[in-house]
Amino acid sequence: MKNDIHLSPIGTIYSPFSDPKEMPIQPASAIGITGKVVVEAEFQEGLKDLEGFSHVILLYYFHLSSGYNLLPKPFLDDEPRGLFATRAPRRPNPLGFSILRLEKINGPTLHVSNVDIIDGTPLLDIKPYVPAFDSHAEATIGWLSGKLDRLNDFRSDDRFSVSPPLIEDS
Amino acid sequence: MKNDIHLSPIGTIYSPFSDPKEMPIQPASAIGITGKVVVEAEFQEGLKDLEGFSHVILLYYFHLSSGYNLLPKPFLDDEPRGLFATRAPRRPNPLGFSILRLEKINGPTLHVSNVDIIDGTPLLDIKPYVPAFDSHAEATIGWLSGKLDRLNDFRSDDRFSVSPPLIEDS
Predict the structure, then answer these.
(1) How far are the Cα atoms of A52, A90, A110, A135, B167 from residue B84, in angstroms, in the given order?
(2) Using CA atoms, how far apart are residues B98 and A59, in angstroms rounded to an integer?
(3) Residue A167 falls within a domain, yes or no?
(4) Cα–Cα distance between B140 and B162 in angstroms, integer?
């Protein structure tokens, strides 16, 4: 499909993680880690009314990722899994998606917690998290079943940005 | 911020909604509506292992949207709200996000339900829905509080694609 889509960042995500090797691999393993989301001045008016929401959905660009593997070996498993059954950052369209806790908003700056995003990541969109739309506690999780207990044992590694010789991407 | 991001669709989303005017405005008001997500042949291998998940996250391009208004009037309210506190399709980066129920997969085709997406929408990414990461039943919803009971009374309208004279975008 040839119809190219062009996007431009609307801001930047700041976090304590300048190195993918030390980064939590999901917000659920990043509890309490704080960061900032700063939107460009031209978009600040669009933040009105957002502070009433306890959680925000961030869409962002995995700017350190390049290429992809349709059968990566995830952090949480020992065998290759279909890319679209993983949250690996190396994807045909390297779009990231995280639900973060919104602590407060000061001008163009969202103070957020549970940040699993690398410092300097380009922000593409902010949406309000709405449990009636977005919460499905009963959902089943296929190959991940029984594996999430190990989540806190893992950190991201080089798989985030490049494909090392022996380990494929997460 | 000038660094352009280029994406290409990895497939297409098919639904009964060829006209934005008749479309549910969220999956929660589209219960039972079925549709298909077809990935291009080159990406089909990446669907392996996905069928074990009951829900999928789709990221897609609001291809009928153009422009945006930082203070749109939502379907569910009578006063303008900050764009980033709404799920309006007209956004600086018109990226859509829906969590759909995955019924089954046949080759390159995902059969999904609870579809709130217009027919022919370009698909950008598929991610597995994982309650431990994505379910926050306790989240608070600001201006939307008390308004979701009316969800089923609404359908999308012209606000989806253009900004009519009297009604701003959703």
Answers:
(1) 12, 27, 12, 19, 18
(2) 13
(3) no
(4) 30
Q: How far apart are CA B143 and CA A87, in angstroms?
A: 31
Contact A50 B84 (CB under 8 A): yes
Q: Are A85 and A2 in contact (CB under 8 A)?
A: no
Cβ(B137)–Cβ(A46) under 8 Å? no
Q: Is residue B25 part of a domain?
A: yes
Contact between chains at B1 and A9 (C-beta distance less than 8 A): yes
B149 close contact with A: CB closer than 8 A: no
Give the CA diameter of chain B. Answer: 48
Total domains, chain A = 1
* CATH number of the domain that residue A77 is part of: 2.40.30.70
Closest by alpha carbon to A93, among B91, B39, B87?
A: B39
Q: Where are the alpha helices (DSSP H) in B58-137?
A: 131-134
User: Residue A55's Cα: distance from chain center in Å?
Assistant: 14
pLDDT digits (tens, 9 = 90+) for A25-72: 666 667 788 999 999 999 999 999 999 999 999 999 999 999 999 999
Predicted confidence (pLDDT) per residue in A107-141, tens digit: 999 999 989 899 999 999 999 999 999 999 999 99
Best residue of A31, A136, A152 to probe chain B, by most B CBs closer than 10 Å? A136
| A59, burial (CB in 10 Å: exposed 0-12, middle 13-18, buried 19+) | buried
- Residue A6: inside a domain, yes or no? no
In a domain, residue A99? The reply is yes
Domain that holds residue A55: 11-160
